[in-house]
Amino acid sequence: MSGRPAGERVRTVFLGSGSFGVPALRCLAAHPRIALVGVVTAPARPVGRHAVPTPTPIAALAAELGLGPVLAPERLRAAESVASVLALAPALAVLADYGQLVPPALLDLPHGALNLHPSALPRYRGASPVPATIAAGDRETAVSLMRMDAGLDTGPLVARVRVPLAGDETAPELEARLADVAADLLCRSLGGWLDGALPERPQASDGASLTRPLRRADGRLDPRRPAAELERLVRAHQPWPGTYAEIDGGRLVVGAARVAATAPGDAPGTLVREAGEPALATVSGRLVLERVTPPGRRPMAGSDWLRGRRAATP
Questions:
Q1: Which of 166, 187, 252, 254 is deepest in the core (most CB within 10 A)?
Q2: What are the structural domains, with CATH classification, of the chain?
Q3: What is the reported pTM?
Q4: Which ranges of the chain have pLDDT less than 70?
């Protein structure tokens, strides 16, 4: 990419919807080399029992900071949506957690389009890299800054920061941590990118994997899988799609769990007692249900639910 005089601010649009992009937008709004000329986000969606239209975290931050215009197209690749963005005359696009495919016209800006992605690309391309990282039990992840191309998270890498994991992270906790790492990486990289001093390198040809959007059915805790795997799913699938165990034909939502050893006589799929708490026996180990939500009730400690269950037994 061609450089510009160091004092000239570059007209930039930001594309994002989820909370992962919030620190990055703050970075762009304050960066001395950036003239933020527009924000592109998803439309407001109904939320809660009363279906109140709620703006995205990015739209809310844009309003707080007085940024604009804020564009919220249903479909970014529609001709009128592309025209609205190009009317802002951007020279650079920056994307973080947007959720739609970016049209070629925005990839071909003078300074291109940069994407912040919370994984060690090419591992975990696609829609759900943070849950996939936790579910796999990885001991390290990364934030990758790449120049976008026509593929899905296949563009060349510009910068990367590796992040060690403790093995007890939930998806919201890890996403928030990586969001701050991503914003710092972006702030440190923008000057070099705009000056043409930051080299690109192609992604590795091996080790690539593609994640998909999570579905409700992904939250089922299958006792034919080891308890250690299920415990990771409990942490990975917060807040969506959540996880649940099938107990006596009903669904018990599981909010927190730990692993205990298998005991003699455990049959996978049965509910057993582990030190005063309910546990799901699995093919390998017990999944101790530390926090649960019974049907039609509020979240509670697993031990409280177990006591109430035993009291209700004739």
A1: 254
A2: 10-211 (3.40.50.170), 216-312 (3.10.25.10)
A3: 0.93
A4: 1-7, 310-314
